[in-house]
Amino acid sequence: TLGNSRSLQEAGEALQSNAKMWLGTFRADSQRAWGQLDLFVPKNTPVGAANYATTLATVRNAMPNAPATAETLQPALTKNLLDSLIKDTQAKSLTWQDMKAIRTRIGEKLAEPQIVGDTSYTDLKRIYGALSDDLGAAVAARGPQAQAAFDRATALTRDGHGFIENVLSRVMKGDQIAPERAAANALSGAGGGGTMLGEIRREMPQAADELAAFKLRDMGLANAGVQNAEGARFSPGTFVTDKAKLSPEAFNALFLNDPRIGALATVGDSMKQTARFLNTSNTETMQAMRHALAGLSPVGALAGGAAGGWPGAAAGWAMGAALPWATGYGAARATTSPALTALMAAPAAGSLSPELLNRAALLPPALRALLGAGGGQP
Predict the structure, then answer these.
(1) SS3 state at 95
(2) Cα within 13 Å of Cα(99), Cβ side
(3) Which of 256, 234, 170, 212 is nearest to 5 (CA)?
(4) How far apart are CA 365 and CA 81, in angstroms?
(5) CA-to-CA distance for 305 and 298, rounded, in angstroms?
(6) What is the C-alpha R_g of the chain?
(7) Is 345 buried (19+), middle (13-18) or exposed (0-12) by CB count in 10 A?
């Protein structure tokens, strides 16, 4: 019900395909939102360009004592925009249509994920913000409806550019990011949080489903050492272990806290706990016996040495080593004895019948004493 992705590459291909569709939708929505403002602000309305001109000059003159370095580091676009603005404003004032068109073109550049991180990106953001401020000043004089439309358009483009910068630029930069790398980037922070996955879930739910489909299948794959030839063996233990590596935020972003996934984890955990007791080589028993011998043998040696010197110490060590084995053997013989079975089933030791007491006579003396049936006394 989530998706068909079974590998990082398939999940990445779905992610990048959805990213391209998202960009197309964002550009259309942005154009529509800003077009609504034309209903309130006539195209030929004069608009001051003070913020725009100041920002261009600031960016251009950021290195006044190193003009050659500035020419190298700063894109030609900034210089050309400043020169063009000076030339244009010498003839006449810029209008609403002029300023909005300039802002739209710069916004289109900011909507290209491949330029995020380039030296021009930060400057373009500053210039875009300055144009928005100049347009906002013109809108403020046109009434509350115009202001509300401007606020909606500004919020839409601001949030969209933020998503491009924080998410899309990490999963697509033209053809520079392979699909499997795109999916890996999206899932990379799942252990510490789910911010990026949460944004993908909100903006591109189908892409989030495909990432979840891959992750769900991947979490259950058995490790290579116990995997079958088809690579499809499921391991409840691996599933539970890998699920625990996901932060709650990432789990919610991927699976929306689907109770079916939680139930699968609960069952997997029970199977994992059961598997711990499946010990065909009997190593657990041998380990426990080794610890018992290591603990009892020195005690027996000390007691024997105190009573009979070196011979006593040797005998005590041997007795201590043999005690766990002897105890287990005695318990096994006793619990299979019909006499003990009858005694354990009796209501109380004080009401033992003569017949049961006779059966008790078949038990070893020490066990008869333990049960209170020795010496003919109930």
Answers:
(1) strand
(2) 33
(3) 212
(4) 108
(5) 10
(6) 40
(7) exposed
DSSP string, 333-373: HHHT-HHHHHHHHSS-GGG--HHHHHHHTTS-HHHHHHTT-
In the chain, the amino acid numbered 345 is A
* Alpha-carbon span 162 to 183, nearest angstrom: 20
Nearest to 204 by CA among 4, 2, 8, 15: 15
- 110: tokens are 């900011």
Query: Tens digit of pLDDT for each residue in 32-81?
Result: 999 999 999 999 999 999 998 898 888 877 666 676 666 666 666 666 77
Continuous segment of H or E residues that includes residue 34? helix 8-35
Torsion of CA 374, 375, 377, 378, to 10 degrees: 20
What pLDDT is stored for residue 71 in this prediction?
65
Dihedrals φ, ψ of 54, to 5°?
-65, -45
Residue 95 has pLDDT above 90, yes or no: yes
At residue 230, what are phi and psi to the nearest 5 degrees? -80, -10
- Collapsing DSSP to helix, strand or coil, 252 comes out as helix
More confident residue, 237 or 315: 237
> Helix axis angle, 50-60 relative to 119-140, nearest 10°?
160
Strand partners, 46: 95
> What pTM was estimated for this model as a whole?
0.66
CA nearest 25: which of 160, 188, 174, 122?
Answer: 160
Answer for the pair 63, 88: CB distance below 8 angstroms, yes or no: no
Nearest to 243 by CA among 206, 196, 191, 197: 191
**pLDDT tens string 209-259:** 999 999 998 888 877 777 777 777 777 878 888 888 889 999 999 998 888
Cβ-contact 372, 366 below 8 angstroms: no
